[in-house]
Amino acid sequence: MNVITTNSQVTLHFELSLEDGQIVDSNFAHEPARFVFGDGNLLPAFEEVLIGMTVGQEGQFEMTPEQAFGARNESNIQRIPRSQFSMDLEEGMVVSFADASKNELPGVIAEIGEHDVLVDFNHPLSGRTLTYRVQIVSVEEAA
Length: 143
Known about the structure:
elongated, Peptidyl-prolyl cis-trans isomerase, Chitinase A, domain 3, mainly beta, 1 helix, Thrombin, subunit H, about 5% helix
């Protein structure tokens, strides 16, 4: 099996970069990644463009925010009283919070005020158009 289908286990090299060419993540200099189509390890739009690709093939795809990590949502930016933090804070650091269901929710410290802290719960890549580059190493039928 050399063609990627929705029933494939795929080994590939990948690279994600921003509009300005800055590389966000890449494994081209390392071991390739392996995933089973539909297992949730890749975003659906990242998988969809792989259908029909073959071993050895390379591709480059532009992903809009809606296809990738979503649009930025201003309601995901919240002010939290500084008194609720028992640690030293720095802008840009990621802090783990618990949502109402006790699930872990990472937030980026966007601004530190005298009385409150602005926390951004958007995905760091939300609102960004990404370029997704791949090289297919192997394709097998998923078990």
